[in-house]
Amino acid sequence: MKELTGTCLFCGQTQLVNAETQKQADQLATENCSCDNKLKKVRQCSDNIHTITGTEAQDIGMEPVTEKVVEQLQELGKLVVYGYIEAASIKLTDSTITLKAIKGATSVSRKKVLSAKLEA
Ligand SMILES: [Zn+2]
Q1: Which of 1, 37, 70, 76 has the highest count of CB atoms within 10 angstroms of its CB?
Q2: Structural domain of residue 106, as residue ranges?
Q3: C-alpha of residue 38 to centroid of ligand 1, in Å
Q4: How far is Cα 1 from Cα 20, in angstroms, rounded to an integer?
Q5: 21 C-alpha vs ligand 1 centroid, how far in Å?
Q6: Mean pLDDT of the chain
């Protein structure tokens, strides 16, 4: 570990952090930055994921998922907000959840496909 100047990926503010590499320093500076932008987006994305997967999901006809899955989805959401990945899609037993960066925002969608097939 050494003291490096990390730069926030969103607002460009710099701060001294203890890190091994410049990439890690920039990541830490971004995660710890005081700018409203990133914090707001991560919180909104996490709230949206919770709404679409938690107990409120029953209101839209979907099953709530376990808290562990919600947490992992929120971690993936952070990666999208930070720009490390563009999108992530997770297949659940009854539906598919997709997190995607769209024009500076992070969309959270959950699709449940119902189909029927009859043969004679
Ligand atoms: Zn910042």
Answers
A1: 76
A2: 36-120
A3: 7
A4: 5
A5: 19
A6: 91
